[in-house]
Amino acid sequence: MKIAVVGTGYVGLVTGVSLSEIGHTVTCIDIDLEKVEKMQKGISPIYEPGLSEMMSKNIEESRLYFTTNHTEGFNNAQVIYIAVGTPENKDGSANLNFVKQVALDIATNIEKDTIVVTKSTVPVGTNTIIKEILHKNLRNDVKVSVVSNPEFLKEGSAIYDSFNGDRIVIGTESKEAGDTLEEINRPFGVPVFRTDVKSAEMIKYASNAFLATKISFINEISNICDRLNANVEDVAKGMGLDKRIGDQFLQAGIGYGGSCFPKDTKALIQIAGNVHYDFELLKGVVNVNKKQQGLIIDKLLERMPDIKGKKISVLGLAFKPNTDDMREAASIVVTNRLIEEGAEVTAYDPIAVKNAKHILSSEITYSDNIKEAVEGSDATLILTEWNDIKSIDLSLFSTMNYPLVIDGRNCFALDEMRKHKVEYHSVGRPVVSEELSGVLN
Ligand SMILES: NC(=O)c1ccc[n+]([C@@H]2O[C@H](COP(=O)([O-])OP(=O)(O)OC[C@H]3O[C@@H](n4cnc5c(N)ncnc54)[C@H](O)[C@@H]3O)[C@@H](O)[C@H]2O)c1
C-alpha cells in the first residue's frame, strides 16, 4: 500500500515508521522544516526506544520518506493518516484547528479516491466534520471514505506497542474502507475491533479516562495510607491479584502527566457537557491529580518550612521514564514552586533536559550526573522513576548536607532504605528514618 501520514509527532512518526516496517511505502508529512530535514537524514526528533534504528532501516530500504510538501506527500497515496496534535483549548476542550487544516489540505490536493484515517484523538463527531470539510472542498470526481482509528501507544514503549498492542480499533461506515484498514494492519498481528465512527472516537477517550481514574484512585488510597501508616504498595498488590481489578495502573505517585491523560480527561468532561451531562467522577479524577502533583512540595515544606536558599536536587524531569516528553510533567509544577520559594535547584534527567530547558525556569541548574546533583544538597526530590535513578548506590544520600529524600515515585524498597542513614518519605508508605530530627531549618 502507498500511505501518507500527516504529522510526525510521537504518534505520526511511530505510525509511519511501523507501517513501513511491515512493508508499506510511507511518506510522512510535517510542516516543521527543521524536523523534516532531520528525519530525512535518519535522525529522530523524539526519543523513543528502537525508533531511530527502525527509521534508518526503512529509509535505507526505500520504504520511508519525509517531506514538508502536502501535494508531494499525497501523490498516489491510497490511504492518508491524520496524526497531528489536538491540544487543549483554554476551556479544556480539544483544539481541532490542526485536524481541520489537514482535512482541507487533503481535499485540495488529492486527485484520486482515498481513505482518510484519523489517528489523532478527536471528540465524538469530529470525523463527521472532517467528512464535511472533505466533501465541500474535493474535486467532484474524487471520493473519500473516513475511518476513525484511534491510537493507544504509550510513550516510552511506542514501537513495542505498535507490534504488541491489545487491539486496533477501526470505526467506519464504509465496509470496504474498514476491510482495507484491517488488511493494512494484518502484519502487526494485533486483534482488530470494528465498530461505528462515533463509538471508535469514544473508545479512545473512555479508555484514557478509565486509566486516569485508576491512577487518581490509587493516589487517593495512598494519601489515606500515609495518614494510617499503611503501605499502598502492598494494598495495590493485594487489590491487583483480583482479576476484575488487575494490577496495572495502580502505582501510587505524584499523578499522571504527559500529552494525553491531562488533556483527554478535560476534553471528555467538555464532550459530556456539550450534551448536558455532568461527568462528576471524571472531574474528581482531574482535581485529585492536580492536588497530587503538589504533594511532594507539601511533604518537603512540612519537614523544611523555609527552603529559601536551600539546595534542592531534583531527579527526573520527564513526565515518565523512557521519554523526553515534558508536556504536563509534574516537574513543571514542582520546580516552579521550588523557585518561587527561593530554593536553589539542581536538576538531573538522562534524556529530557533539552526539552526541559524550553519549559522550566531559567534559574534551574542542570547536571548530567546524579552524584553531582545530589552531593551537598539539603533535600532530594525524585519525580521520574528512570532506571538509572532507581539503581543508584543508596549510600550517595549520605553525601547530602542533610539526607532528606522525598520520592514521588516509590523508587526504592523500604527495607533497603532502612540500611542507610537517610530520612526517606515516599508515597503512601511509612516514613523511613533512624532519627527524625524535628523541623529542619
Ligand atoms: N503522544 C501520545 O502518546 C499519544 C498517544 C495516543 C494518541 N495521541 C494523539 O495523537 C495526536 C498526535 O499526538 P502527538 O503527541 O504525536 O502530537 P505532536 O504535537 O507531538 O505532533 C504533531 C505534529 O503535527 C505537525 N503538524 C501540525 N499541523 C500540520 C499540518 N497541517 N501538516 C503536517 N503536519 C502538521 C506538527 O508540526 C507536529 O510535528 C493527538 O491527537 C494526541 O492526542 C497521542
Give a verbal description of the structure.
The chain is α/β, with parallel strands linked by helices and 441 residues long. The protein has three domains: 2-195, Rossmann fold, CATH 3.40.50.720; 203-292, Orthogonal Bundle (N-(1-d-carboxylethyl)-l-norvaline Dehydrogenase, domain 2); 295-436, NAD(P)-binding Rossmann-like Domain (Rossmann fold), CATH 3.40.50. It is built from 18 helices and 14 strands. The strands form two sheets. It has an eight-stranded mixed beta sheet, with helices on both faces. A six-stranded parallel beta sheet has the order 11-10-9-12-13-14. Helix 1 packs across helix 3 and helix 5 runs parallel beside helix 6 (126-137). Bound molecules: nicotinamide-adenine-dinucleotide. Nicotinamide-adenine-dinucleotide (NAD) is lined by residues 6-12, 29-32, 35, 83-86, 98, 101-102, 105, 120-121, 151, 153, 155, 259-260.
